[in-house]
Fold this protein.
Amino acid sequence: MQRPIAYEVATLERRELSLVHGIVVHAAAVVDGRLLEFNERWSRRSRSAERSLSSWDASVWMAVCFAIGSVVFIVAGISAIVGPGAEATTVRLGNLIGATVFSVGALFAVEEARCAVEPRRWSQFWASIAGRASLIQGVAALLPFQVGMVIAMANTEQAHLVAALNTVGSLGFVLASYLYLRESWPAHDVGTTSSAANLLGSVLFLVGSTAGFAPPGAAADAVVNWSFLVGSMLFAVGAITALVELSAPARSTEVVGG
């Protein structure tokens, strides 16, 4: 899709620009009695009422991976609370699988951001909010968080190391989710809902990760387990609404003043 941000919207009268770190993420201008709007997220995800999930592009795969990973995390979280406990091999394996699927989704997020810029250069990629957010998210998912889950699977005696890695990874998720929310906020639509759910889920993962430093006990275990479980549920909401978002029509024209 041609990215219309270069369309002379910045020179039009009665215009509004929403910027994040100096980058335009939403533009609105009145032209011939109509409100024309552009949103970076709408353009990047090629949103339209005719959008089909059968295209299986980076946006679809990203949302699908996050949805599957969330479901795996939810199953593992429930098992940790009402089943064999967080230290059980099946629970740790579930967390590892969930983290791996999330990492794949994070790679698709980077690809989505890369495909949305022209020309496809590093400078253009970093000049977009999605480029910055997806890179932060990808690094957080692939390095500290993924490594933490691998160590947790291999050795239950490294609880503080795992907590430290998960905390660093969760901080990356929080920052990336915050950028995505800032990008989608001016639109106040389903994309905003998806971003908000992901940010809340990231914050709860951060709470659960830092709680891993506490001395073992019922209270600490409850904070860890419930934070990860509810956070996973919020990630599932974010992924499902991201899929719904793809077929939601992007607002392009609207009569001003009836």
Q: What stands out?
A: The chain has eight helices and four strands.
